[in-house]
Design goal:
The protein has about 625 residues and is α+β, with helices and mostly antiparallel strands. Helix content is about 50%, strand content about 10%. The chain contains 22 helices and 13 strands. A hairpin with a 2-residue loop joins strand 10 and strand 11.
Length: about 625
């Protein structure tokens, strides 16, 4: 079947209708999608979106008609809906379209049209204000002032207008709702003749949110119950003489077996010890990524110092004959104590988030539903003075505690199996995971550019993950080896070590490229990297490891997880839990990242996907 000819060609200059209004502006055609029958066009200020053919007119014919019918800009604007007005009237259900930038702080359209009919894929950026000499502009000022006065009483919950911040626009913006200076005509935003452009803030905090993750509000209830239950299952199952899944479910111990006051005291002291190390004036003070306000928070990145001091403290305890096998024999009670602390911390975090400003809330945890926001995290960067609670919990007590627990399991294996040294399997698991943690703390600054720090609020999900999930599920392999030793030959040890080195190299090299590029894309040292420019002003890496797959850091992570699991053999599925969990986690993260980037970068993201075809594993996925 022969396709109809394309009316407008790439590079043509035409007049495009602004979505939601009857106004037409000069645009350049970038391409045509035969499948969707949509033209991709770009406005003079960089706004890029997709239009139907009926929304495009010939520039020459349009100019003739527009001059004959033209009236004053003020009158024409008063009869049509500008994108600014459309945005402010729209629903809060799909706020991700605007909230990813959060510069506008206004609620986006309720329709999730994949072709972006009314949800415009654009970039906020400052623009010099055009001279206002037309007499109609005086009429416009008066008219807008009257409207503002009439609407004041209806905006009790609305914050004052927020000035557009240049730095925030560069790093966070998606929506370029700015006045265009073209032939002195009225443009798609009702810009006021002031020194700086302003955009109104959303009327209520609950309207500024991204689409709900993890199954939405119902999913939040499920995960609040499932996550603690899963940790309990792993601990009870791995402690069985035969941890085969055919013996599921493991018998529940009596209630008193879950509680030990001494275990609670030990966990509390451990967290306080790490907090003291965190606040010491040792190490580098690093700047985080720009927030929606343009502010950059400062962080004390002394994690490597903390793990060194912790190792010295553990060595002193061993020298003083402190029985670290207590950790193995009271694993369930320690997990219960950590769970209790994570719940109390989550309650505190949610309560305090009710008293902070709109600009301090996380877009992903601002749904208006108490349970969902409690789970996902309502406040983005909760701090007590300069003590950043999220950053501290992310990198300190749970992560360093992971290494402490592994070390205790090695001692417990020697004691239980009557060995003078730990088994080869236990040594590999300890060394591999210790290297992973030490590397993370040595490069602690890199975490400031991750999704957890930049986008996710601090609530139950991260508090439980940092204090319970990491130290009490990532150590399952070492816990398993205590009672189920796996002998390894020297060739097997060498092969597993080589696999670990390959995974670690890919993980570290790709993360270093990403972190350096995010912090300073114009760094001359990165000039060899190829990129795809986007309408937001950012660029997408398409070379180095990021030209092989879209998430090379995930690929390295998975190879390392395989190296951690192999020393446990193939007798049981349970010690492979980490590998299985990590595949699910990374695939889910990839899907979240794909959705966000598609909204944020539009056609540039489609070009990126065509350039870098595979997501995580080359030629597989």
């Amino acid at each position: 079947m022969k396709m109809p000819p394309v009316k407008y060609q790439r590079g043509d200059t035409v007049m495009g209708r602004w979505p939601g209004s009857s106004l037409y502006y000069e645009v350049k055609v970038l391409g045509f999608d035969a499948k969707s029958q949509l033209y991709t066009v770009i406005y003079k200020d960089g706004t890029e979106l997709e239009l139907k053919e009926q929304d495009i007119k010939s520039a020459s014919g349009f100019q003739t008609r527009s001059r004959s019918r033209s009236r004053s800009p003020g009158r024409r604007r008063s009869r049509s809906r500008s994108p600014g007005r459309t945005t402010r009237r729209s629903s809060s259900r799909t706020a991700a379209a605007v909230a990813a930038a959060a510069i506008t702080d206004s609620a986006p359209s309720s329709r999730r049209d994949t072709k972006l009919k009314d949800t415009v894929e654009v970039t906020l950026s400052p623009l010099p204000q055009a001279a206002e000499n037309n007499s109609n502009n005086r009429h416009e000022k008066k008219e807008e002032k009257q409207k503002e006065d009439n609407n004041t009483s209806n905006k009790v919950n609305e914050k004052p207008e927020a000035k557009v911040q240049t730095e925030s626009e560069k790093n966070q913006g998606r929506y370029n709702l700015r006045r265009r200076k073209d032939d002195g005509d009225t443009k798609p935003v009702e810009a006021k003749p002031e020194k700086e452009a302003k955009i109104a803030v959303a009327p209520a905090a609950s309207t500024l949110s991204t689409p709900l993750d993890f199954g939405g509000k119902i999913g939040a209830y499920f995960w609040l119950l499932f996550l603690p239950a899963w940790v309990l299952f792993l601990i009870l199952q791995v402690n069985l003489v035969d941890p085969s899944l055919v013996n599921f479910p493991p018998p529940l111990p009596p209630l008193e077996a879950f509680w030990d006051a001494q275990a609670l005291g030990f966990v509390t002291l451990w967290i306080l010890f790490q907090a003291v190390l965190y606040v010491l004036p040792v190490g580098k003070v690093s700047e985080g990524m720009p927030l929606r306000s343009g502010e950059r928070l400062k962080y004390r990145t002394n994690g490597f110092f903390a793990i060194v001091v912790s190792a010295v403290a553990v060595a002193v305890m061993v020298h003083q004959d402190v029985d670290l096998t207590y950790i193995h024999s009271h694993f369930l009670q320690l997990a219960t104590a950590s769970f209790l602390i994570s719940v109390l911390l989550s309650i505190y975090l949610y309560v305090r988030s009710r008293y902070v400003g709109q600009e301090q809330l996380a877009l992903g945890g601002n749904s208006g539903n108490v349970i969902y926001d409690f789970f996902k995290g309502h406040e983005l960067n909760p701090r007590i003075q300069d003590f950043d609670l999220k950053f501290f919990c992310e990198m300190r007590p749970g992560l360093i505690g992971w290494c402490l627990i592994n070390f205790a399991m090695a001692i417990a294996e020697m004691k239980q199996q009557g060995l003078d040294t730990p088994s080869n399997s236990m040594i590999l698991v300890n060394l591999f995971q210790l290297l992973y943690v030490v590397d993370g703390l040595w490069n602690e600054e890199a975490i400031l550019t991750t999704m957890d720090l930049m986008h996710d609020g601090f609530g139950f999900m991260l508090a439980f993950g940092d204090l319970v999930w990491v130290p009490f599920t990532y150590t399952i392999q070492a816990y398993y080896l205590v009672s189920h030793p796996i002998p390894l030959s020297l060739p097997a040890v060498i092969a597993i070590v080589i696999l670990k080195i390959i995974g670690f190299y890919i993980f570290r090299k790709s993360n270093s490229e990403k972190n350096a590029f995010r912090r300073n894309p114009s760094d001359p040292k990165l000039s060899y990297l190829k990129t795809i420019h986007t309408a937001t002003g950012k660029s997408l890496l398409v070379s180095g490891w990021w030209g092989v797959v879209r998430h090379p850091n995930y690929l390295g992570d998975l190879i390392m997880a395989l190296a951690w699991s192999l020393p446990c053999g193939f007798s049981h599925l349970l010690p492979w839990y980490y590998m299985i969990f990590f595949i699910i986690l990374l695939v889910h993260r990839d899907s979240r990242d794909m959705s966000e980037c598609r909204r944020k970068y539009g056609s540039a993201w489609e070009e990126y996907c065509r350039t870098v075809r595979y997501r995580i594993i080359p030629h597989v996925y």
